[in-house]
Amino acid sequence: MTVSAEPLTEDCRRVLEFGECILVGLSPYNSFFRPAAVETLVGWAAARFDRVEVLLPGFEAAYAAIAAGRPPRDAVRSALRAVQLLRTPARRALAAAGRRDPDALVHTWTRLVTRPRYRELRAVAEHAYRTSPELRALCDETSREGLVSALGREPTPDEVARNLGYVLAEVPFFVDVPGIIGAQTAVFVYSRPSPLVEALFAGVVPELTPARGHASAVVRLTPVARGGPPLRRHAVDGAAATPREPDVTQGVLRWPLPFGEHGTPPPLFARLRAERPVCPLEMPSGHRMWLLTRRDDILRAAADPRFSRDLTDPGAPRIAGDDFNTVLGGIFNLDPPAHTRVRRILQPLYQRGQVEAMRPMIAAHAAELLDGMDAGPNPADLVAAYASPLALRVSCEVLRIPLEQRRTYLSLFRTQTDYTADPAEIGASTEAITALSASIVADRQERPDPGEPVGALILAHRDGVISRDELVGTVTYLLVTGADPVIGPLATGTLTLLRHPDQLAEVLADPGLWPAAVEEVLRYHHNGFLSNPRVALEDVEIRGVTVRAGEAVVTPFLAALWDPEHVRDPHRFRVRRSGDATAGFGHGPHHCLGSSLARVHLATAFAALFTRHPDLGLAVRADDVPWEEEMLFSRPALLPVTW
Q: For residue 544, what are the contacts with CB-CB under 8 A and spacing of at least 6?
């Protein structure tokens, strides 16, 4: 078969002929994309373009079968099989064309939700669907046509509506492929004309006008006799290569290190632990720190008074910018005895007995959110439907602050803890969060309640026990630790339990194991792969390496929890493992104040989720779950599940 491409406009033709980058869109519900056709199409693209990538549908591919009346779990299984039937010939064709690491070149749009431009355009498309009659009509018609192809009949309006998630997830690729995948120019090709794409190029929806350098074309296959001239092949110097593991025995490593699969620590931690347990590491800020990877060294440094957590000096080392580690007076950034004085005010409110009394409140919010999830689309994103809003609600209850104030904080916190953000944006977010903390304090000044954290801090300030900076800075700390640290373990833990059905079965058979399962989730994943820096107050020697006064160490507690000298087979997830995840909450004076609350929150949330849905399953391959790896608290960007 030969392939011909028909560009939509003259500008599209120029991009097509330039041959820089092509994104080949494949659909499981289009009979055009049989395995032989997929191989031919991808092979043609590899012969003509310097860079070739392939796009497969995400979990929304199940919506068509669900619209036809199939049970969601059956529809998900069917969609996964259909997508895999496209993935295999695409990878085979890329490998045959000499493209390195074909797996890295075949995407589902679920995995691409971590790309900022995709996320931005997806939000724009969803908003425009609600506000633009023109886009709404075009998307409805596209959904209808797709269902006619998939079902072989005319769908009902309800079926069209249930399938809209598929259409809206695809819209960003009709607008700005270069921005999504990182190219100067790129052409998106599909097998048939689309009135929606044509309307976008015509400017019918101004906010979704295709970007400069983005092109669209329709491809067609024509049978030819064997023995025709071979295709001219481009050089593949620009093909994606499998990343090489850095040499850990010398030089300075750079953060971030390549992360492990499914939320596990960077594999390099194991090599560093064995070969270079005290290793220089350059942060995105350009500052160099010393990375520790052995449990004994990590815990010793965390408790050593020769290391300070006070990073408020403008010249102190930074990870990426002026984040929450720079907030004056925050308990995060205090050393004893000031730290002890502030902590003593909050400690009684986070003791086990106090936290246990919160369990019914957490369970009530969990039940209400699960009711909402059950009433919505299936499959659903567990992060958006359950893990994130549950953490938000519980934090608002504990701190007694309005939900809208908490939402404002979360949007700022995302920028504040993004390794890739501009330092000026990080600093501005920190200032805004500090101002928000001050406004929370101001709102509570008249009637502070000693039985809740913010009120207790206000009263301590009135009594002269803590300063104004310590009051506002520690409220900022409570915002930081109140929600995000439990979103990740709940989402990642659910994924891990679903990836280990034998372990999940043990807990379902004996719900009394949930506390032990939580410990193993926290040991296996923790919250992130780094830690807050600690600055040496004097020269300190660690395993023959001198950390000079003013230099910082980072003590990733997840590395401590995976140290085989202390944990047998740390790579194995076992809910009946002896021991616990206490080291994951830090060590020494800065051991996490909310560790008991986190454990109760997670045990209650897991039990509620799996009691309601013991048959919960992933709606995508585990390898296709996208990760927010650029954030301080690493976690799935979304977790598509079905039940």
A: 278
Q: Is the separation of the CB atoms in 316 and 426 below 8 Å? A: no
**SS3 of 1, please?**
coil
Q: Which of 150, 145, 152, 147 is nearest to 162 (CA)?
A: 147
Q: What pTM was estimated for this model as a whole?
A: 0.88
Is-contact 463 231, C-beta < 8 A?
no
Point out which residues pair with 289 in neighbouring strands: 281, 552
Strands (DSSP E) contained in 11-153 are: 21-25, 51-56, 106-108
Residue 429, both tokens: 């977010």
Task: Report DSSP state, residue 169.
Answer: H
Q: Which domains does the chain have, with CATH numbers?
A: 2-222 (3.40.50.11710), 253-262+334-642 (1.10.630.10)
Write out pLDDT tens, residues 587-623: 999 999 999 999 999 999 999 999 999 999 999 999 9
Residue 217: beta bridge partners?
7, 189
The per-residue pLDDT for 28 is: 86
pLDDT of residue 435: 93
Longest CA span, the chain = 91
498-537 residue pLDDT tens: 999 999 999 999 999 999 999 999 999 988 898 999 999 9
Q: How far apart are CA 171 and CA 192, in angstroms?
A: 15
Distance CA 406, CA 414 (A): 13
Can you point out the beta strands (E) in 234-364?
253-254, 278-282, 288-292, 307-308
Cα 70 → chain centroid: 30
- C-alpha 122/C-alpha 172 separation (Å) is 6
Cα 558 to chain centroid distance, Å, stands at 18
Helices 514-525 and 484-499: crossing angle, nearest 10°? 100
Q: Please report the pLDDT score of residue 239 as a whole number.
A: 40
| Helices of type H across 19-71 | 35-48, 63-67
Of 84, 17, 35, the closest CA to residue 57 belongs to: 84
SS3 216: strand
Which tokens sit at 459? 């009263």
Is-contact 357 348, C-beta < 8 A? no
Token pair, residue 236, equals: 């593949």
CB 197 within 8 A of CB 167: no
